[in-house]
């Protein structure tokens, strides 16, 4: 279909490599880009360039950032005694919206998954241990509640506890605003297991 | 609970066929190779999303076809539920309940089915994996949590094995293995205790005074000493640390519920080595009767019962004993190549099967 324009085909092929984009969507996007004004198209390519040039990782928490240290690590109003450990940047972004949390983050950059060849050395664990000093009183482990996330949490707690720091794990249970009758039995079971006294 | 209608398409030797079933007894009558057992298999797949004889989906698609599809209407608690299971070669199986895409686990929560047939002898005579498969499929119908623990245990196990192969530290996965593994073992202990005592009774009844014993043998051992959750946990942890070196050398997990077994004894001798074909068959039927009884009680409704060629090796007296034992069953499907006993003909519908199709209904 792109026989007449090899460069459009090249663009579509590239777009199809992006996550969540299939062949059809890639073709649609390629044609859309083709229809853009020169100005708009150049702007898009400049933004991609800018992102690659400017955005890097914070050398303390490994969050994405345009500055080093990142805004969160550099902020004087943040509670420096609590570090919340997450798998990915997107997890930190979600937790940062939580009003009750004003601490710092540590982004591991993944989770333990030997099946994918990811071991402790592939995560920012050493860097997390280096951050533990007398100012840090609590580490919240907020990895995902699945097998790999739990294994990562266990691994981290074993490393951290001997250092004398308090290690906590986020709770599991029902989403707020949901109805009990629609909850799946596994989640409900977890909620019952993790019940708290009034 | 009963299946009121079923449509099977491109499954085994069935091209496409619709059935209207009776709430009582449905007799599938036909020669060997006519497709009677295939129909039972289709029913099992519809209810639990898998074959009762452990066949993989690729084998169940009719040859030279790409997709099988099984649809049925099931009445439970006076509600009608439409279920469809479809499988396309090299893709994931698609299950819908009332037209909503669903997970296989949901089938286990809604439906309940027990099958008994010639393949069951392997529970007594075959490999430990057959016995674990037997426990898992029936225990999962009683406890959704068990099914869930089992699937998590499998995930942890494959991660741990990958860790061992890549020479990484399996420690964190061991901790999870213990969590899920102990729950699995506790469930198996309770379930197999009940199964053992009922099977013993049924075996004595059907065999005319015979003696069958079964005992759960978890790979961590020591059940006779301590079967409390704490005891299991301690023993599991100890066995894991004892076998750490061996696991590292062999690059695989050596202890845990995935290595459990059940020991069968007939007349005081290990059934696998000493029992006859007939004893295996009778033992297997007693086992399924026990399971039927337990499921019926726990689920507070009669499971759908699939009986495959059970008349072939049992004499008339035992068959009557069997009918009495199952007494008060809900819906029954049975295949036979010989004339079924007259007692089975009341409240029954008979399907004459040939070449994967219905030739006549009586």
Give the overall average pLDDT of chain B.
92
Structural class of chain B: alpha/beta
Low-confidence stretches of chain B: none
Strand order of the largest sheet of chain A: 4-3-5-6
Number of helices of chain B: 12
Query: The biggest beta sheet of chain B, please?
Result: 6 strands, antiparallel
Gyration radius from CA atoms of chain B, angstroms: 21 Å
Poorly predicted segments of chain A: none
Kindly report how far apart the N and C termini of chain B lie. 23 Å
Q: How are the strands of the largest sheet of chain B arranged?
A: 2-1-4-5-6-7
CATH fold description of the largest domain in chain A: Dna Topoisomerase Vi A Subunit, Chain: A, domain 2
What Rg of chain A, in angstroms, do the CA atoms define? 22 Å
Which oligomerization state do the chains in this entry correspond to? Answer: heterodimer
* Number of structurally distinct domains of chain A: 2
Number of beta-strand segments of chain B: 15
Query: Per the principal axes of the C-alpha atoms, what is the gross shape of chain A?
Result: globular
- Helices and strands of chain B, in order, run as EEEHHEEEEHEHHHHEHHEEHHEHEEE
Could you tell me the number of beta strands of chain A? 6
Q: Give the DSSP E fraction of chain B (strand runs of 2 or more residues).
A: 15-25%
């Amino acid at each position: 279909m792109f026989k007449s324009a090899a460069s459009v085909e090249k663009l579509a092929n590239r777009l199809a490599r992006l996550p969540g984009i299939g062949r059809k969507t890639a073709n649609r996007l390629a044609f859309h880009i083709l229809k853009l004004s020169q100005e708009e198209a150049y702007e898009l390519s400049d933004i991609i360039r800018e992102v690659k040039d400017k955005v890097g990782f914070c050398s303390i928490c490994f969050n994405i950032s345009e500055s080093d240290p990142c805004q969160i690590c550099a902020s004087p109003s943040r509670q420096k005694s609590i570090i919340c450990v997450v798998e990915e940047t997107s997890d930190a972004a979600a937790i940062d919206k939580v009003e009750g949390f004003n601490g710092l983050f540590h982004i591991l950059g993944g989770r333990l998954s030997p099946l994918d060849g990811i071991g402790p050395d592939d995560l920012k664990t050493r860097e997390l241990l280096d951050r533990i000093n007398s100012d840090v009183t609590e580490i919240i482990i907020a990895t995902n509640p699945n097998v790999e996330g739990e294994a990562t949490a266990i691994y981290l707690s074993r490393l951290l506890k001997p250092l004398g720091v308090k290690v906590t794990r986020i709770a599991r249970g029902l989403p707020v605003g949901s109805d009990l009758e629609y909850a799946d039995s596994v989640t409900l079971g977890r909620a019952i297991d993790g019940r708290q006294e009034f | 609970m009963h299946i009121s209608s079923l449509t099977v398409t491109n499954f085994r030797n069935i091209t496409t066929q619709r059935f209207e079933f009776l709430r009582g007894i449905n007799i599938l009558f036909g020669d060997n190779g006519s497709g009677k057992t295939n129909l039972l298999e289709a029913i099992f797949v519809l209810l639990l999303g898998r074959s009762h004889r452990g066949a993989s989906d690729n084998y169940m698609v009719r040859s030279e076809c790409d997709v099988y599809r099984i649809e049925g209407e099931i009445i439970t608690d006076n509600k009608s539920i439409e279920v469809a299971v479809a499988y396309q070669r090299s893709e994931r199986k698609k299950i819908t309940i009332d037209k909503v895409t669903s997970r296989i686990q949901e089938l286990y929560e809604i439906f309940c089915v027990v099958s008994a047939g010639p393949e069951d002898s392997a529970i007594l005579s075959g490999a430990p994996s057959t016995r674990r498969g037997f426990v898992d499929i029936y225990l999962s119908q009683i406890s959704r949590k068990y099914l869930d623990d089992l699937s998590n245990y499998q995930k942890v196990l494959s991660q741990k094995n990958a860790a061992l192969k890549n020479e990484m530290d399996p420690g964190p996965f061991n901790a999870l293995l213990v969590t899920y593994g102990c729950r699995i073992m506790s469930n198996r202990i309770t379930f197999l205790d009940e199964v053992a005592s009922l099977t013993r009774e049924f075996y004595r009844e059907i065999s005319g005074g015979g003696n069958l014993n079964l005992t759960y043998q978890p790979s961590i051992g020591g059940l006779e000493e301590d079967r409390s959750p704490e005891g299991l946990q301690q023993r599991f942890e100890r066995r894991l640390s004892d076998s750490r070196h061996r696991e590292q050398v062999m690059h695989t997990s050596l202890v845990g519920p995935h290595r459990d077994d059940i020991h069968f004894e007939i007349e005081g001798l290990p059934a696998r080595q000493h029992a006859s074909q007939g004893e295996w068959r009778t033992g297997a039927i007693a086992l399924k009767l026990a399971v039927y009884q337990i499921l019926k009680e726990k689920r507070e409704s009669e499971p759908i019962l699939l009986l495959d060629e059970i008349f072939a090796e049992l004499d008339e007296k035992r068959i009557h004993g069997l009918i009495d034992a199952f007494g008060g069953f809900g819906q029954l499907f049975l295949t036979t190549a010989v004339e079924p006993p007259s007692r089975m003909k009341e409240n029954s519908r008979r399907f004459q099967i040939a070449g994967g199709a219905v030739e006549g209904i009586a």
